[in-house]
UniProtKB/TrEMBL annotation:
Protein name according to UniProt: TNase-like domain-containing protein
Keyword terms of this UniProt record: Endonuclease, Hydrolase, Nuclease
The keyword Phosphoprotein belongs to this UniProt entry's keyword annotation: no
Pfam family, one: SNase
InterPro entries: SNase_OB-fold_sf (IPR035437), Staphylococal_nuclease_OB-fold (IPR016071), Thermonucl_AS (IPR002071)
One GO MF term: nucleic acid binding
Organism the protein comes from: marine sediment metagenome
Domain TNase-like: start-end pairs: 26-90
């Protein structure tokens, strides 16, 4: 697709062998053992790949606690890319609006991809400060939005979205579809990092 061509063109930078510099944060690896860091194209720290990918819409916003050194900057860049419909947020990145049934029936097809899901919130669950906007009252195994306490405290109070009033409201949420694996069930979900990922539909 044209999106893939643009990303490939940017990532190659006319040179397949690029030397990079890595800056760490509080943790060196995540719980899966993956190396975490901020990637630079120069030793002076003037060209961060993470920022460029977010600003062009070629990366998803994902902060892994407690590694928050550039969190605010990343959020602003991702928001701007979303507002300008760049990269993954463009027409070739988001091609259709799914309902929760389609996501649940075709989880493997959409897993790891950016999707937009429209559904009615049937239940608002709160556990240890984490909010779950479930698509079903009997929520286990069904699509849900997950919002962590850090995002609730930092971003949502300044937005137009009142979490407590969302039950029975129809939402559109855009983000990466993930699969939560509990002991007795698996649940497709989108982790919301910022309020602009959620759009309230007219009542």
């Amino acid at each position: 697709t044209e999106c893939n061509k643009n990303l490939l063109s940017w990532s190659k930078k006319d040179n397949e062998d690029i030397k990079v510099w890595l800056e760490g944060d509080i943790e060196k690896r995540d719980k899966y053992g993956r190396l975490l860091g901020y990637v630079y194209l120069d030793p002076g720290g003037n060209s961060m790949v993470n920022e460029e990918l977010l600003s062009q819409g070629y990366a998803l916003l994902e902060t892994i606690p407690p590694n928050y050194k550039y969190r605010h900057t990343f959020k602003e860049l991702a928001k701007e890319a979303w507002q300008k419909k760049k990269g993954l947020w463009s027409a070739c990145g988001i091609q259709e609006i799914l309902n929760s049934d389609e996501v649940e029936d075709n989880t493997e097809q959409y897993l790891g991809k950016i999707v937009t899901v429209q559904y009615e919130v049937a239940r608002i669950g709160i556990t240890k400060g984490i909010v779950f906007l479930n698509s079903r009252e009997d929520y286990e195994g069904y699509f849900t939005i997950v919002i962590y306490s850090d995002e609730l405290a930092a971003d949502f109070p300044q937005s137009d979205i009142d979490i407590s009033s969302l039950k029975r409201r129809v939402l559109r949420v855009t983000g990466k579809l993930e699969l939560y694996e509990a002991k007795d069930y698996e649940q497709p979900q989108i982790i919301v990092e910022a309020p602009w990922q959620i759009e309230l539909m007219e009542e």
